[in-house]
Amino acid sequence: MAILGAHMSIVGGYYRAVERAHALGCDCVQLFTKNRNQWRNRPVSREEALRFAAALAEHKVAHPIAHASYLINLASPDRSLWRKSTDALVGEVRRADRLGIDYVVIHPGASIDGKATAGLRRVVRALNQVHARTPGVRSQCLLETTAGQGTSLGGDFEHLAAVLEDVESPDRLGICFDTCHVFAAGYPLSPEAEYDATVAKLEQTVGFSRVKAVHLNDSLGALGSRVDRHGHIGRGAMGLEPFRLLLNDSRFSSIPMYLETPKGVECGIDLDRVNLATLRALVVGST
Fold first, then answer.
1. What does the DSSP 8-state code read for residue 113?
2. Is residue 132 part of a domain?
3. Rounded distance, CA 183 to CA 107, Å?
């Protein structure tokens, strides 16, 4: 059975994200460990960590995962921003570890100058620094597949493979597979033959065993549009078929999947609940 959850707000405390996930029937939860649009490196208190762990146990929500700040750009050619981003990611990893969270999802970044190879080298150097500065820390970084918009890296599986190949501690890295991003980057996820070809490409480049999390989002942009705009499940350019194939693929059955669809209410029902119900109805044998 698929492990399904969603990204939740930490307003009111980390434990509140768990409570919100439980209230919507989530199996797992994703959260930011600080304000996503601020550089301030917020520490996690012992009390906060204990309360978060207690909430996970009480509500039986598993596989908590953190998403790093959107401000971080490990591929930046600007030395000041690159250092600031590297420092910020160190903080992200330490906060996640303090909270008992195994993975931190991070976008590879944008090269800005348009030089992908140089940008990827900067990503590798940044990750090497992060690993060197966090010895003994259990939490690992997951490089997220991106839509490849502008000079963003990660739209091609080969970008992620290059980082995994060159980084000094590849065992401390994994991949987060985002359905909207992969589709917008030009990798089809239906019909079945094309879905299989995309997953085979993923296996050939980064290796399927590296995939530790999935972001479930429809795409408001067309296949190959390079537009990163998330849509509600089945209501975007992807439709329902890619999600049916993914949710019934045994290779993904033990990998937690998190909604990042727009928040809101429809006909008095929370849209996360609507999207989760849509997904669960696609699982063979769910009815």
1. S
2. yes
3. 16
Domain membership flag for residue 287: no
CA distance linking residue 65 with residue 102, whole number of Å:
7
Residue type, 13: G
CA distance to 88, 104, 158, 264, per residue, from 165 (Å): 24, 20, 10, 41
List the CATH number of the domain containing 278: 3.20.20.150
- Per-residue confidence (pLDDT) for residue 113, from 0 to 100: 84
Q: What is the mean pLDDT of residues 12-20?
A: 98
Contact in structure between 241 and 196 (CB atoms under 8 Å): no
Token pair of 121 as six digits: 């080298």
Residue 153 belongs to a domain:
yes
| Cis-peptide into 191, omega within 30 deg | yes
Residue 182 pLDDT class (50, 70, 90 cuts): very high
Instruction: Give yes or no for residue 215 having a pLDDT over 90.
Output: yes
Mean pLDDT over each residue of the chain, to the nearest integer? 97
Give me the domain span that covers residue 245: 4-282
Q: How far apart (Å, rounded) are the C-alpha atoms in residues 63 and 5?
A: 9
* Residue 52 falls inside a structural domain: yes
Residue in the structure block whose two tokens are 């059975």: 1
Q: What is the pLDDT of residues 139-175, one digit of tens each?
A: 999 999 999 999 999 999 999 999 999 999 999 999 9
How many CB atoms are located within 10 Å of the residue 233 CB? 24
Contact 73, 85 (CB under 8 A): yes
Phi-psi sector, 148: left (phi>0), alpha (psi -120 to 50), beta:
left
At residue 112, the pLDDT reads 85
- What is the rounded distance in angstroms from the CA atom of residue 215 to the CA atom of residue 259? 6
Q: Is 204 left (phi over 0), alpha (psi -120 to 50) or beta?
A: alpha
The pTM of this model reads 0.97
At 118, list the tokens: 């140089």
Number of domains the chain is built from? 1
